[in-house]
Amino acid sequence: MSIRTQLYLFFVVLPLLLTTACQSGQLVVTSSPNEADVYLTEDGGARTALGKTPLKIDSKVLSSASTDNIRLEVEKDGYHAKSVLLPTPFLPSEFSYSAKLSEVSVPQKCKDINSSLNALAEGIAESQSFIASRNFSMAESRLMRLVVEFPNVSVVYGLLGNVYYLQKDLKRAYDNYIKAFSLNPDNPRTETMVNKLRSLGVDRLPAGGGQE
After folding, report:
1. Domain map of the chain by residue range?
2. Confidence tier at 181 by pLDDT (50, 70, 90)
3. Which CATH number does the domain 25-100 belong to among 2.40.128, 3.30.2320, 3.40.50, 2.60.40?
4. pLDDT tens digits, residue range 87-145?
5. Number of separate helices (H) and strands (E) present in the chain
6. 118: closest CA among 149, 158, 77?
7. Helices 136-149 and 108-132, interaxial angle, to 10°?
8. Fold match between 25-100 and 108-203?
9. Where are the extended beta strands (E) located within 53-148?
10. CATH number of 108-203
11. Which of 209, 159, 148, 210 is nearest to 184 (CA)?
């Protein structure tokens, strides 16, 4: 092979072959679990969304990057993100990346809080149902259990105040309204009931008094 032929192959044919290879390449991204979002992030901060996994696109999308190094990022809600640095000048025509995403665990403390909030909501709903049906003994029993479990929740004392007020046990109604008001002084309804019972002199009654 002549020197001229070798030079022709090196300077003309080889660049064409490399260009063709780059144009026909693919970028393949998979993840476990599927349906993760895929992004390209450049050094300067520009971020491009490519789609969701499993993803297969033309690798020439990388050639539009304005920097030599870009980062491929795979993200999904509830999971830790994964990423890989792509040195674009040296990237092969075909590139595959598989990301195994680990689930973000919820701290036990948060689980306990959610469980407590659910128990409180259920207890309040049950108590309101008992009050609506005028089953005051059941309402009182349920609310007293909530007082033990949630001693700083104003609405529980407010409902107890309602139970006693509807039974005309004004002294105990007043004591519970006062407790509810001390925990949440921004509740206008509780303030109204406190002032109403004070106007009747209930606040001056001895403990156990107030039955009309």
Report:
1. 25-100, 108-203
2. very high
3. 2.60.40
4. 665 555 677 889 999 988 767 777 788 889 999 999 999 999 999 999 999 999 999 99
5. 7, 7
6. 149
7. 160
8. no
9. 55-58, 69-75, 82-87, 95-100
10. 1.25.40.10
11. 159
What amino acid occupies position 26? Q
What does the angle CA 66 – CA 67 – CA 69 come to, to the nearest 5 degrees? Answer: 140
Report how far residue 177's alpha carbon sits from residue 193's, in angstroms, rounded to the nearest whole number.
7
Nearest to 97 by CA among 26, 35, 19, 47: 26
One-letter-per-residue 3-state SS of the chain: CCHHHHHHHHHHHHHHHHHHHHHCCEEEEEEECCCCEEEEEECCCCEEEEEECCEEEEHHHHHHCCCCEEEEEEECCCECCEEEEEEHHHCCCCEEEEEECCECCCCHHHHHHHHHHHHHHHHHHHHHHHHHCCCHHHHHHHHHHHHHHCCCCHHHHHHHHHHHHHCCEHHHHHHHHHHHHHHCCCCHHHHHHHHHHHHCCHHHCCCCCCEC
Which residue in 22, 40, 12 sits closest to 89, CA to CA? 22
Which band of pLDDT confidence, cut at 50, 70 and 90, is reported for residue 179?
very high
Residue at token pair 């919820």: 106
Which residues, in sequence order, are bridge partners of residue 107?
none
Residue 134: both structure tokens together: 């005028």
